[in-house]
Specification:
The complex is a heterodimer of chains A (343) and B (614). Chain A has 343 residues and is an alpha/beta fold. Helices cover 26% and strands 27% of the residues of chain A. In chain A, helix 1 packs parallel to helix 7 and helix 4 runs parallel beside helix 5. The longest helix of chain A has 23 residues. Chain B is mostly helical. Chain B is built from 27 helices and ten strands. In chain B, helix 24 links the parallel strand 7 and strand 8. The chains are: A alpha/beta (343), B mainly alpha (614).
């Protein structure tokens, strides 16, 4: 009998990769988790609290990390080469190790849309413009020089780099609406005297309890929701921001002076993931995310044997969805690996 | 030389004569219609131009260069130029020499239309004279020239790439009839004259044909049928002409007269536009030129097809194409006939809807967009600068920051007119065909600018620049694009820039290059900053960035393809940076380029030597 190859390489050490590593290990697989960054956790590690219940991101991260304390994790490591050889993938890592993996799981996640590309909002040009990620960092560390001590007006701008054909991202990033509402509530708690505005196209409160969060934002926190896109932001001589938008419900243009503007940058497929997948010529859709074998029944499978996907490399999604997808990918990988044992 | 046929007539001239009379009548009616439809002011302009010696000379020069020699096509591709010139010039010379022969040898037949054309049939050679021999040679020479052109034309139909054309026009039915008639006219003429050479004499070509065929046939029975065939081919060609692209042979001269008189498109289908429509030779150079045609499915929106549908009065198609176009002007700039197809499209858009659901009455309210006066108390010779960034530049604040940096370094005392929001320049409205709204905006802006008392106005956006230069009357105010102003600042040593070891490629924005004719100032500046690399297609052939405001209906997928194509052309010589001078190009490229994209102002501001005064 052939020696059974149970090596599984997971690319990406975010929530998806970590959960998949834990479950695969429990299934008796030999898991190698490859993470390009210096630590595990992905974007989750940058976040302070998670919607809708505002649980601490670190609490979830600790659980995920503890689960995989005995899994082989290579940090600061990238995939250099990946070749298919006899129903297994010959993978060369940047730390010099070569693995012959039966299956590979892409848990490469997403990149936050580079908000500076939407230059009319002035990220990187005006001092008082930050992104959703910057704000989470601030909530976490309490430090950000761009955030004034007593802001009077704070604006949240939805859909920055989402649902925007002009910038080349047509897809909805799905989680930013709820994130924005959560962050609006949180910043209102931190600066109770500030007026918080939220400029949105639609509010997509699709998940359980999200609507409650929205209700809280309106009725308890007094966040003012304005339906309409912001056309441009300019800076006046005092360094304050002049936000020009259209209130489409009132049917007129508005101009508000802000002390801080938060851009809800959307999601796009991770550049590093695309680069790695490029070695296998994995197909991507117009929106840049990977293509599954089919989008109903075999979401986690790719068009290639032994290559699996999970998480946000297949499109924007929430953390619970990502974790579920990681688990479903584990089932598929297990079936795939066992199909060789029966030969 | 003397008449061979008593009465100087044979029935075979009938097809030719019918064709000529039909064409003549058609042209006459068309010409009167055009004159009737142009505004009366334009008619006066035309009349004056026709008696002004300077315009007369220009008319003659243009007609010879454009209609006969096809200088513009020669400059693009010599072989293609030769093909057109040999047919046009050769044919013209055949007609001219035919008339000269009639005038010299059978003066009593002067004025008979068919005589010069069928001269060799009607006139017999008596004895060789130097004069006759001279004409025999010339006639054969030009016939050979035309035949060489026809041969090339036939090759072009099958292998256009030899002539530098990736795609050529798909001919319509009338085009095909005209085409095949044209192809057959001159070989038939050669045969007819060759067969007749035994009687009426011939040159090196026709005589040779005669010797070859005389030994075949041994009789003269084939003479008359070939003259018939020649006449029928000519008649067919003339009948097809008004419905085919060959109409341009005559209408182009009329268009040149109109254009040199300073006429412009006012209505999309009548008057001057009609002269343009009928002057389109359908050569299809605009197909390869059109940036949209990077996708094959968009070929149908090319100017040549737009004009074809205009001829056919197919309003649905006309509107579809008129609204799809990017209005980048590239087709017009390379058009051998210089047809202003963007002007026609704009006029067509005006007919679609010129009405807005709201009015601009509020513009009349005083102080809506206040532009305070630059200080007039100082001496009048002093530069009083009004800086107008425009809406597009407000979407790219990095350019504004760079501009203010340059102003500060130069010590320019400027007033930022639209710092807290300004009014649209009117060009986007104009491009969309909303001329009435555009006029209201122009009026309001003009008042504000004149009230400010400035004497120099600086614009970042070429879209604004074009309309400010063309449609505004701002007497006493210099209207400068920032590239021109920066070049001036450097020349006057008001700012100093340092040269670095970076390489740059410059993208010519449509509205700045083809629109306003500004090609050199940005390049001169870049050469002072670093190495200027060439783009694949540049200056008047530069490819639109894809972001153009001109198109009303083009989708983003197609636009992105255009952007990719334009970027490919820019990075062909591996530059390290892309520099442009339009906020819209900057923004469009910025989303997709893999190397840094910057506006000229940013490139300059980065390399400015500040605080030079010690």
């Amino acid at each position: 009998m052939k020696h059974a190859n149970k090596n599984i390489v997971i690319i990406g050490g975010g929530p998806c990769g970590m959960e998949a590593a834990y479950r695969l290990k429990n299934e008796g697989m030999n898991v190698i988790l490859v993470e390009k960054g210096p630590s595990l956790g992905g974007h989750l590690a940058c976040w302070d609290r998670l919607f809708p219940e505002s649980i601490k991101a670190d609490d979830l991260l600790d659980i995920l990390k503890n689960n995989i304390s005995d899994v082989n994790c290579f940090l600061n490591t990238e995939i250099i080469k990946m070749n298919l050889r006899n129903d297994a993938y010959d993978i060369e890592l940047s730390n010099g190790i070569t693995v012959l993996a039966r299956a590979v799981l892409f848990a490469t996640g997403f990149d936050i849309f580079p908000a500076e590309k939407k230059e009319e909002y002035g990220y990187g040009i005006y001092n008082k413009v930050i992104t959703n990620k910057d704000l989470e960092q601030y909530f976490k560390t309490g430090k950000d020089e761009r955030i004034p001590a007593n802001p009077k007006n704070i604006g949240f701008i939805h859909c920055v780099g989402s649902r925007d054909e002009k910038i080349g991202n047509r897809q909805c990033s799905k989680v930013c609406c709820a994130t924005a509402v959560k962050q609006a509530c949180e910043i209102k708690e931190r600066f109770p005297d500030a007026n918080v505005y939220s400029f949105y196209m639609d509010l997509r409160m699709f998940g359980r309890h999200y609507e409650d969060l929205y209700y809280k934002a309106q009725h308890e926190c007094g966040v003012r929701f304005i339906r309409g896109r912001v056309s441009e932001i300019s800076e006046n001589k005092e360094g304050k921001l002049i936000v020009k938008a259209e209130d489409t419900l009132m049917g007129k243009p508005i101009k508000i002076t802000m002390d801080l503007v938060v851009l809800m940058a959307g999601m796009k497929n991770s550049e590093a993931g695309i680069k790695t997948a490029g070695q296998l010529a994995v197909l991507r859709d117009d929106d840049g995310f990977f293509n599954s074998e089919d989008s109903f029944y075999n979401l986690e499978k790719s068009a290639y044997r032994g290559i699996f996907f999970a998480g946000t490399c297949l499109g924007p999604k929430t953390i619970p969805e990502t974790i579920n997808e990681a688990r479903s990918a584990v089932l598929s990988i297990k079936e795939y690996v066992e199909s060789f044992a029966n030969d | 030389m003397k008449d061979r046929i008593i009465g100087g007539y044979d029935n075979f001239v009938l097809p030719f004569m019918a064709g000529v009379i039909f064409l003549g009548a058609y042209l006459l009616i068309g010409f009167v219609r055009i004159l009737y439809n142009i505004p009366s002011g334009d008619r006066k302009k035309l009349l004056i131009s026709l008696i002004t010696p300077k315009t007369i000379l220009k008319n003659i020069r243009d007609i010879i260069c454009d209609c006969l020699i096809h200088v513009k096509i020669f400059k693009r591709k010599a072989l293609l130029g030769y093909m057109h010139a040999s047919i046009a010039f050769g044919w013209f010379m055949l007609i001219l020499l035919g008339h000269i022969e009639v005038a010299l040898f059978v003066p009593e037949r002067n004025g008979i239309l068919y005589y010069p054309v069928f001269y060799r049939y009607f006139v017999a050679e008596q004895h060789h004279t130097i004069r006759g021999g001279f004409f025999f040679f010339l006639m054969d020479f030009f016939l050979l020239m035309v035949l060489s052109g026809i041969t090339l034309a036939i090759i072009k139909r099958f292998r256009s790439i030899i002539f530098g054309m990736k795609r050529t026009t798909k001919p319509s039915l009338a085009d095909r009839i005209g085409l095949y008639a044209l192809w057959s006219i001159f070989p038939l003429r050669l045969l007819a004259e060759g067969f007749t050479a035994g009687i009426s004499g011939g040159g090196f070509l026709t005589n040779s044909i005669h010797y070859v065929f005389a030994s075949f046939f041994g009789n003269d029975l084939n003479i008359l049928p070939t003259w018939w065939a020649y006449s029928i081919a000519l008649g067919l060609f003339f009948f097809a002409m008004p419905f085919s692209r060959y109409m341009h042979i005559v209408t182009e001269t009329v268009l040149i007269l109109f254009r040199n008189a300073g006429l412009k498109v006012t209505k999309p289908r009548k008057g001057f536009a009609e002269a343009e429509i009928y002057s389109c030779p359908g050569c299809g150079l605009c197909i390869d030129a059109c940036p949209m045609n990077v996708l094959k499915k968009n070929v149908k929106y090319s100017s040549v097809y737009f004009i074809r549908f205009l001829r056919r009065h197919n309003t649905r198609k006309i509107n579809e194409i008129a609204q799809k176009c990017l209005m980048c002007g590239k087709c017009s700039s390379i058009c051998p006939v210089s047809i202003d197809s963007c002007g026609i499209r704009q006029a067509q858009r005006e007919t679609i809807t010129n009405i807005l659901p709201y009015d601009y009455g509020f513009l009349k309210k005083p102080g809506l967009y206040p532009v305070p006066q630059p200080d007039c108390s100082t001496d009048p010779g002093k530069e009083k600068v009004l800086y107008f960034a425009g809406c597009m530049t407000h979407l790219t604040p990095a350019i504004i920051k760079a501009m203010t940096g340059i102003f500060d370094a130069a010590g320019t005392d400027y007033y930022f007119a639209d710092e807290n929001g300004g009014l649209c320049c009117g060009r986007p409205l104009m491009l969309a065909g909303k001329t009435r709204a555009a006029r209201e905006v122009i009026e309001a802006n003009t008042k504000m600018i004149m009230d400010s008392g400035c004497n120099t106005m600086i614009l970042n956006c070429p879209i604004c620049l074009k309309i400010f230069r063309e449609e505004y009357s701002l007497k006493g105010i210099r209207i400068l694009h920032h590239s021109e102003y920066i070049e001036e600042l450097i020349q006057k040593k008001r700012i100093n820039v340092k040269k670095n070891n970076m390489s740059y490629v410059y993208h010519d924005p449509c509205e700045l290059g083809r629109g306003c004719g500004i090609y050199e100032p940005p390049r001169n500046i870049i050469k002072m900053l670093g190495e200027l690399k060439k783009a694949g297609k540049e200056r008047k052939e530069s490819i639109c960035c894809g972001g153009s405001l001109g198109s009303i209906t083009l989708n983003y997928h197609d636009r992105n393809k255009i952007t990719e194509d334009s970027l490919d052309s820019l990075i062909i010589n591996n530059p390290e940076n892309i520099v442009t001078a339009c906020p819209l190009c900057y923004k469009t490229f910025g989303n997709m380029a893999e190397i840094p994209v910057m506006d000229l102002a940013q490139a300059v501001n980065k390399n400015i030597i500040k605080n030079k005064q010690i």
